[in-house]
């Protein structure tokens, strides 16, 4: 039973969040409802911004809901995994550490979904929900930086990159926990990495600004 609890805990911490993360809202809605894969349009990215620019606001709320719910269930699975191991005497992880670990695997699934050719989104909506699930202080800072920069500059990518940078900073300031910091650095690093093309365009002044009027 002890070995099973460890295996079950690891599966709930890693595999389940990854599979849930693979349920990319933009891909699911565009591919199976609209029958027109979002990755063949616009920037080619399976993210909320590209979905809105291409298809408009009609089903954008469904994309948001799908990405939000998968993040919630991924972190709940991680917390359950940590509890399962502790139930049988394996107190390796706190609930907060479990959130960071399962959050990372959810983001990996979102960015690199195995059932969609490892071509997913950039992890901002799901990452934002993960921040909310982790701690309201982390969420206020990362969401605040995203909204302020995105609204003031109209560059969604700039706000997104700021979240990747601030996520590990807040992890350390709030918890001073090396495990949380390590996983937060990986998550933040992945978010910045996924926006490398946007960063290059920002530097060269060719990045597109966001508008509520989608392209026709």
- First-last Cα distance: 59 Å
Count every beta strand, where a strand is a DSSP E run of 2 or more residues. 0
Binned strand content: under 5%
Number of DSSP helices?
A: 10
The shape, in one word, is globular
Mean pLDDT: 91
Over the alpha carbons, how many angstroms does the gyration radius reach? 17 Å
Low-pLDDT ranges = none
- Tell me about the biggest sheet? none
Reading the helices and strands in chain order gives HHHHHHHHHH
- The secondary-structure class comes to mainly alpha
Portion of residues within helices: over 70%
Folded structure, characterized:
With 216 residues, the chain is an all-alpha fold. It has helices at 2-21, 25-33, 48-55, 60-87, 95-111, 124-134, 136-153, 156-175, 178-194, 196-204. Helix 1 crosses helix 5. It is globular, with a radius of gyration of 17 Å.
């Amino acid at each position: 039973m002890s070995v099973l609890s460890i295996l079950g805990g690891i599966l709930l911490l890693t595999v389940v969040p990854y599979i849930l993360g693979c349920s990319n809202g933009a891909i699911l809605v565009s591919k199976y409802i609209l029958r027109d894969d979002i990755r063949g349009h616009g920037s080619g990215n399976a993210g909320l911004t590209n979905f809105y620019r291409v298809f408009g606001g009609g089903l954008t709320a469904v994309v948001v809901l799908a990405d939000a719910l998968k993040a919630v269930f991924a972190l709940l699975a991680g917390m359950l995994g940590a509890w399962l191991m502790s139930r049988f005497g394996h107190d390796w992880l706190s609930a907060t550490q479990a959130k960071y670990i399962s959050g990372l695997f959810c983001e990996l699934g979102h960015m690199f979904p195995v059932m969609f050719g490892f071509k997913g989104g950039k992890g901002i909506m799901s990452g934002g929900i993960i921040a909310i699930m982790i701690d309201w202080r982390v969420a206020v800072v990362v969401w605040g930086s995203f909204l302020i920069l995105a609204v003031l500059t109209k560059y969604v990518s700039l706000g997104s990159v700021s979240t990747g940078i601030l996520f590990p900073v807040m992890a350390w300031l709030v918890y001073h926990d090396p495990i949380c910091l390590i996983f937060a650095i990986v998550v933040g690093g992945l978010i910045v990495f996924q926006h490398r093309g946007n960063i290059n365009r920002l530097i060269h002044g060719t990045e597109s600004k966001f508008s509520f009027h989608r392209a026709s």
